[in-house]
Design a protein that fits this description.
CATH architecture: 3-Layer(aba) Sandwich
Order of helices and strands: EHEHHHEHEHEEHEEHEHH
Distance between the termini: 29 Å
Number of strands: 9
Oligomer: single chain
Radius of gyration: 18 Å
Helix content: 25-40%
Largest sheet: 7 strands, mixed
Length: 271
């Protein structure tokens, strides 16, 4: 009988990470032994109110409201949605949920050492993990990134794919590295960008596909293999949080979150 992969799921809880987590929980080959939830907004030593204000100044009220909807809003309304929030999924499946604003501190180091995971998987996670921490994963330390790396490294690649009228984007499963989004890609999958896509709908599709990529990779027993990996360390543009002017341009042609999206969120998936 095949032994289950013991996986620690690292995330900044959101609708997107819930979609990926649901994929993992439905797999008979994966044992999600713990969740590490980031409580950091922007910086380690910055309170939530200050971070929220800084984000509004940077990206504007509309984009900040969109971020609230997929994170805090999802936490409040998830019981009526098609995807339970990360916290509810943890409780329902009796999974320990550790909260931290710094995964690299001594307390979290001790926790991960005690868990002895085979795999550390980051999904919509907003902290850089130090090499000495991700090395605690016995087999693989991976990240789901919603673009075809090395293109669109950085924050919210789907926003920039839509802003720049991409016809095709994708999702990458890559190894963690000292730099953000620089580790070797182990699997990726192209994805057609539809004219009707909002930022929300595109991200939902990509993070669900990312969950499937992770299952495919682990089920193939490839988590120890190092061959045929695509390096992503070449110098490419690293996107930061969109500016308010970027969002204004975006809103002329695309939607952050549409009424159709809201109807979909609160409709139960068909069996």
């Amino acid at each position: 009988m095949k032994q289950k992969e013991r996986l620690v799921f690292c995330t900044y809880p959101s609708f997107y990470s819930s979609l990926a987590l649901q994929k993992l929980l439905a797999s008979p080959d994966i044992d999600v032994i713990a969740i590490i939830s980031s409580t950091r907004n922007l910086r380690v030593k910055e309170n939530a109110l200050a971070s929220s204000f800084a984000r509004i100044i940077k990206s504007g009220l509309r984009y900040s409201a969109y971020l609230w909807m997929i994170t805090s809003g999802h936490y409040i309304f998830s019981r009526w949605s098609r995807a339970l929030c990360v916290e509810a999924l943890a409780k329902k499946n009796h999974i320990p949920n550790y909260q931290t604003n710094n995964i690299n501190n001594s307390k979290m180091d001790e926790v991960i050492r005690g868990l002895k995971p085979d795999v550390l998987l980051c999904t919509h996670f907003n902290q850089r993990i130090a090499p000495e921490v991700y090395a605690l994963a016995e087999k693989s330390a991976l990240n789901i990134h919603p673009s075809l790396l090395p293109d669109l490294k950085g924050v919210d690649p789907s926003f920039y794919a839509l802003l720049n009228n991409y016809k095709t984007t994708g999702v990458s499963l890559h190894r963690l590295d000292e730099e953000f989004d620089a580790g070797a890609v182990v699997l990726n999958q192209p994805h057609e960008v539809k004219s009707t896509d909002s930022l929300f709908s595109l991200n939902c599709e990509l993070f669900e596909a990312g969950g499937d990529l992770c299952l495919t990779y682990l089920n193939r027993g490839q988590s120890r293999q190092q061959n045929n990996l695509t390096e992503t360390k070449e110098k490419t543009h690293y996107t930061s949080w969109p500016s308010a002017s970027d969002v204004n341009i975006f809103k002329k042609h695309k939607k952050l979150l549409s009424m159709q999206d809201i109807k979909w969120i609160f409709s139960k998936p068909s069996l």
